[in-house]
Specification:
This protein is mainly α. It has 17 helices and four strands. A two-stranded antiparallel ribbon has the order 1-2.
């Protein structure tokens, strides 16, 4: 690590100068020899570097999305020219050129930070050995050596010898506890940043090997940082933890405000936008108008999230325009004025089987299902049946009211259904 850091010694002077400038500011507040003054100087160095790298971060986002969109075409090229590696490479480069995609753009922020990272490592190593470096003179180096962050010197490492830690006026136990906590936080922040990217800001409709690679990196990167972290000084751990937290916050902002099309984050964003447009009757910012404009321009190529957004506007009586604004829909206004939209004719509900059987059993209550003629005919049949029930039977006996004759084809109570066998003349009636 020291050999690699020495390769970036040309940038140690600018890095040390920035740290000294911030130290003079925080030293006036917290004291020049405190860990807060030197620790916040390193944090401010990270923030300054990340602000300068925002344009590269924007390029990284665009490149990542372009790579996701190109995965199906790249897979087709690989299958088509799998026996010709040279032709495959040529077609890939042609595809990148046509779409304006640079595969290395996704690594630009990390590559741009590397010189500052190794330069800071080289500065802290010199502070630990008590040597001057850059604009850090002897008094500043001694002040930095005495600075402790929660009991751990900023130049101490997890793997340092007890004698080396004692020379920095600290104990090895304190150094290992502080560095272990910072390594865990550094790895956890790296994992969470990659996890929220995979779960919320990836187009789930496109299943490509790129997604599998990103999922592998989600588990590999934290392990790599945890293994390397035991060789980092406390000041470098402060640097890397700060940059991870910055990346996590930056990623959350992008997911909430500029999500990937087809992702869960886009669905949540469009639902929030729909509520805002319906509540105010207009698109209230230029950035949101740009989003609506891009959705309208897609036409039939919209994804499910965008189609739900357009449908939601139509239900609210609004229609998205080509310039990103919304206007009242003529169809929705006409329905509102005529009242047909609010008072539509409802179809009668289908009755359940139990209710239909109850209606047949009690004709008097089935007014909705029987007409007057049908009710009259049923009443006449009942009267006729009751009159026949008073006639004497063939055997001379009189029939009571409870022994009425059944209708043709209908079995009496307690009698089997179907055709009955005639009784023998000698049998008792």
């Amino acid at each position: 690590m020291d050999t690699i850091a020495s390769l970036f010694s040309f940038i140690t002077t600018p890095v040390s100068w920035i740290i000294v400038q911030f130290h003079s500011l925080y030293g006036a507040i917290f004291g020049p020899d405190t860990g807060w003054a030197w620790g916040l100087s390193i944090v401010s160095l990270v923030i300054l570097i990340r602000i300068c790298l925002i344009p590269l971060f924007v390029k990284q986002i665009k490149s990542t999305r372009n790579m996701q969109a190109l995965q199906p075409k790249m897979k087709a090229i690989q299958e088509r020219y799998k026996s010709d590696r040279q032709r495959q490479s040529e077609e890939m480069m042609k595809l990148y050129k046509e779409t304006g995609t640079n595969p290395l753009s996704s690594c630009l922020p990390i590559l741009a930070q590397s010189p500052f990272f190794f330069a800071l490592y080289h500065v802290l190593s010199k502070i630990a050995s008590g040597d001057e470096i850059g604009v850090l003179n002897k008094s500043l180096v001694d002040s930095a050596r005495e600075a402790h962050i929660f009991g751990a010197p900023i130049a101490a490492k997890f793997m340092d010898d007890p004698s080396k830690v004692e020379a920095l006026y600290a104990s090895l136990t304190d150094v290992r506890i502080v560095t272990a906590i910072m390594i865990i936080m550094m790895s956890a922040s790296q994992f969470y940043t990659q996890r929220q990217l995979m779960q919320k800001n990836v187009d789930l409709t496109v299943k490509t090997p790129y997604m599998q690679q990103q999922k592998m990196l989600m588990y590999i990167f934290p392990v790599i940082f945890a293994v390397m972290g035991i060789n980092f000084p406390v000041g470098v751990l402060v640097y890397w933890l700060t940059t991870n937290v910055w990346t996590m916050g930056q990623q959350m902002y992008v997911i909430n405000q500029n999500p990937t099309p087809g992702s869960k984050a886009q669905d949540h964003y469009l639902q929030r936008l729909l509520k805002s447009v319906v509540a105010h009757g207009e698109v209230r910012s230029r950035r949101k108008r740009t989003v609506v404009q891009s959705i309208v321009a897609k036409g039939t190529d919209r994804n499910d999230n965008e189609r739900r957004f357009i449908t939601g506007l139509a239900k609210a009586g609004l229609a998205a325009q080509a310039d990103g604004t919304v206007a009242k829909s003529e169809t929705a206004v006409a329905e509102a004025e005529s009242g047909s939209g609010a008072q539509r004719r409802q179809q009668p509900k289908r009755q359940s089987k139990a209710r239909r059987q109850t209606a047949v059993a009690t004709p008097g209550t089935a007014k909705d299902t029987e007409g007057p003629a049908e009710s009259t005919s049923k009443t006449s049949l009942q009267k006729e049946g009751s009159a026949e029930g008073t006639k004497p039977k063939a055997g001379g006996g009189k029939a009571t009211g409870s022994a009425r004759q059944a209708k043709p084809g209908q079995a009496k109570s307690g009698q089997r259904k179907g055709q009955q066998r005639p009784k023998h003349p000698s049998s008792k009636k």
